[in-house]
Amino acid sequence: MKEDKPITVRHMHAGQSGKVVEILGGTHLFNRLNSLGIRPGKRITKVSSMFLRGPVTVRVDRSQVAIGHGMAGKIVVDVEEKKP
Fold first, then answer.
1. Residue 22: inside a domain, yes or no?
2. Of 20, 29, 46, 75, which alpha carbon lies 20 to 30 A from 14's?
């Protein structure tokens, strides 16, 4: 099951997963995230985030990467609801 509308990675809870729908940024940001394996259509899981605008750790495929708080706010994800 899915939630009603897509949200950014910044607003996801730790452990939530979803499919990247869109990257809200220019070519430089798109290329940077693409080099980390984060691109539209990929499944992404938020692992953790630090308090007060710190880095956000995500899992893409079999890799874990840390991205900045600002970057996390520009990755739009269609979140999957956890199964009970």
1. yes
2. 29
